[in-house]
Amino acid sequence: MDNLTNINTVKELLNKYGFTFSKGLGQNFIVNPSVCPKMAELSTASGIGVIEIGPGFGVLTNELCKIAKKVVAIEVDKRLLPVLSETLCEYDNLKIVNADVLELDIQKLIDDEFPDMDVVVCANLPYYITSPVIMKLLEEKSRIKSLTVMVQKEAAQRICAEVGTRECGAVTVSVHYYSKPEYLFSVSKGSFMPSPKVDSAVIKLDILDTPNVVVKDEKTFFKVVRASFSQRRKTIVNALSAGLNLDKSVIFDILKMSNVDSMLRGEKLTLDDFAKISDLIYEKTL
Q1: Cis? peptide before 194, omega within 30° of 0
Q2: How far is CA 286 from the centre of its chain?
Q3: Which value, in Å, is the radius of gyration of the alpha carbons in the chain?
């Protein structure tokens, strides 16, 4: 069905299936006809496997099915299953999985559904699970090549910010560790039904074969990153001491050995800085 961005079509489907939007699930469906074709094209999904998260009425799914070898759409809301059966009935390269993506074994899904294909993710992510979903997909180290996702504009700017700048946060560092992020284009709040209070943006994360920095222990690295941003107004020595429950004198020594100014805040550190600090903390707390 190609007219899923038409307001009258959307209203007919809402009435036919008695569907109401769930604020709890962050449901805002795309009604701007130019957005999804552009997303699908930029996701480089042509001829390969695609995982979509939260298909809604199937606007983006429809575009992905036209170009991908196979699409697996993960939808948590059972109420949408009969709607999707109608709106996407013409495609035999589509499978709908009724599940919560945060509880799903993504690697098993890829092995089962895409045994001989490259795989990308392309999705309009609900705002409330943006960071958890992105981090889950990155941390599981599956065969996913890239993530092309629509998120809240502010989140997109934060994710794609350079490490070591004011906009940088824990998610920024984590994303840059695993991938090369790129801000693709903005999407106005009027492009959705119902219209959210903020604008959105589409970003792409090209996942690296090996992380941007080599660390001795990834768990320690991410503990250091989280601690560094847990209290943004604190200097790095105070943030790490409190966040890692280590004596301030130990942190001072580690920062000195890492050539990091103890009076800096976490947002000013580079990926290399975080790597050096985490390696030394790992060695000292073995």
Answers
A1: yes
A2: 32
A3: 21
